[in-house]
Amino acid sequence: MEGLTIETIADEELRALALRYRTTQDATVDWKGTGESFLDVVMRANSLLEKLNMQYQHKDVMVIAFAHGMLINALRTVVGDKALLEENGRINFKKHEVNNAEAYWLGRSRQLAEKLFGSRPHPRIN
User: Which of 41, 54, 98, 103 could form a disulfide with 74 if both were Cys (CB 3.0 to 4.6 A apart)?
Assistant: First the structure.
């Protein structure tokens, strides 16, 4: 449903689920078995980071990954991106969303790039 407007979703039940997801941030919406809930994506993102951390622990390496915006936002949730926090401390996973094909520096990757390459990465990349 990512990338579709409510009006373009033909199935009435899926349209209602998309509206619920977008207005209430219900991370458990299961999309009638046609996709993953945001909670499912967060769990997958966490597993990915655990594998990468084990593989590259104690090494200065930069992993460059290409993913859809929802996975990037799930990764941001897993690492505790402060830009997603509301004043009350709750995570707002749709706050400051990263769109599909939008570059995003996760965690301390920007600082690591500066250390490895000796210069500031392109300023347009978040």
Answer: 41
As a whole number of angstroms, the distance between CA 35 and CA 7 comes to 19
Does residue 66 share a domain with residue 9?
A: no
Same structural domain for residues 60 and 74? yes
Give me the average pLDDT of each 10-residue run along the chain (126 residues). 84 89 81 83 94 89 80 86 82 76 77 74 52
Tell whether 46 and 87 lie within a shared domain: yes
| Cβ-based neighbours of 101, under 8 Å, separated by 6 or more | none
Q: What range does the domain containing 69 cover?
A: 38-126
Give the position of tokens 């290409």.
66
Judgement on whether residues 2 and 47 belong to the same structural domain of the protein: no
Helices 38-56 and 69-78: crossing angle in degrees, nearest 10, is 70
